[in-house]
């Protein structure tokens, strides 16, 4: 029996996917080609190629998978920062504790925004009507806001003394931000394809 990671289970709800067979070359090429429009194309491809069977050659599915992956990464980072934040309450560095608490709050907001995007992507109506335009606009707005919150988390460490904690949190948050940035780029690409007059 194959045990699927949580993000994959979420993605299965996005498609009529029925097989766990090896992805076709066309599906992986589709992902590679679409990832070229992102700021981090290698990360995009390597993080999404494993979902080629779910994506096939469907830009809507690709955007959904990318947003779901972004949610998974943001949730993991939020839990990580929550644990560090509790430990920092007992440390001697109040600036670091404050930055961690702020980062936790910002990442929590980002998770809520990305979660809203996932839900909205699940409810997309086919066609190019006003409802679809509104739904996709919501996703773009929420993903952009999540990206801003992730950026702001990193910015909050500017006044924190250089050290392992600052480097660790900033580096990890930047990696989450890159995944979110890629997801937003793929959403924007999908919007451009379906909203052509």
UniProtKB/TrEMBL annotation:
InterPro entries: Invertase/methylesterase_inhib, Pectinesterase_inhib_dom, PME_Inhibitor. One of its GO terms (molecular function) is pectinesterase inhibitor activity. It comes from the Eukaryota. Keywords: Signal. Gene3D superfamilies: Invertase/pectin methylesterase inhibitor family protein. Residues 26-186 form the Pectinesterase inhibitor domain. Transmembrane segments: none annotated. Residues 1-21 form the signal peptide. CDD domains: PMEI-like_3. This is Pectinesterase inhibitor domain-containing protein. It comes from Sesamum calycinum. The lineage of its organism: Eukaryota, Viridiplantae, Streptophyta, Embryophyta, Tracheophyta.
